[in-house]
Amino acid sequence: MIDRTLISEERIAARLDELAREIDTAYAGREILAVGVLKGSVFFLTDLLKRLSTPVAVDFLQVRSYAGTSSTGNFELVRDLSSDIAGRDVLIFEDVVDTGLTLRKLLGLLGTRQPRSLKIAALLKKDLPENADLPVDFLGFTIGPEFVVGYGLDLDEKYRNLPFVAIWDPTR
Q1: At 107, is the secondary structure helix, strand, or coil?
Q2: For 61-105, what is each residue's pLDDT tens digit?
Q3: Span 113-132, mean pLDDT?
Q4: For residues 168 and 147, is the Cβ–Cβ distance under 8 A?
Q5: What is the pLDDT of residue 67?
Q6: Rounded-to-integer distance, Cα 79 and Cα 90, Å
Q7: Does the domain formed by 2-168 have CATH 3.40.50.2020?
Q8: Pairing relationship of beta strands 56-67 and 70-79 according to DSSP bridges
Q9: pTM of the complete model beyond 0.70
């Protein structure tokens, strides 16, 4: 059950404005290939891209590593990119960086495809020892270890449509 709102719709919108300015500055004069990690990144990706003045192309890939509220530790590439990323500035859009295991494997995979640059934009990063050394280039918010839903984040495909991020508490 939803315990409480962690990050309001207004706070998300304000942070996306700031992130857009940061990304526009970092990529001035270059085109970005925005790679959305399906399905959770869709809200974050589309809302942030609408704020950019930098030219952008979009592609998606899908990985599977969760079952319910916990990571399985497995990495399965369900849908690969349709674009060649060699020589391009690639910005991966992720909803939440949890343990970092999935993102590390994804960076390794895409890194072999010789992009010009490979960076990460994430709405959320959990403050965990497992991901402390994993740099997120454009970060919305750092949160605690709680399981969260809303704004693209789900629990068994539910709650993605909430316009805010909320803490899920199974004991409530």
Answers
A1: helix
A2: 998 775 555 555 677 889 999 999 999 999 999 999 998 888 999
A3: 96
A4: yes
A5: 57
A6: 17
A7: yes
A8: antiparallel
A9: yes
Give, as one character, the DSSP assignment of residue 133. T
Phi, psi of 135 (to 5 degrees): -75, 135
CA-CA distance, 154 to 95, in Å (whole number)? 10
Is residue 149 scored above 90 in pLDDT?
Answer: yes
Instruction: Note the pLDDT of residue 94.
Output: 96
Give every strand in the sheet of 2-7, ordered side by side: 2-7, 165-168, 148-149
- CA gap 143, 124 in Å, rounded: 7
- In single-letter form, the type of residue at position 71 comes to S
98 is catalytic: yes
Round to whole Å and give the CA distance between 7 and 151. Answer: 10
Tokens standing for residue 127: 């403050």
Mean pLDDT of 132-152: 95
Q: Where are the domains of the chain?
A: 2-168
Of these residues, 98, 127, 137, 156, which one is catalytic?
98
Burial class (CB in 10 A: 0-12, 13-18, 19+), 107: middle
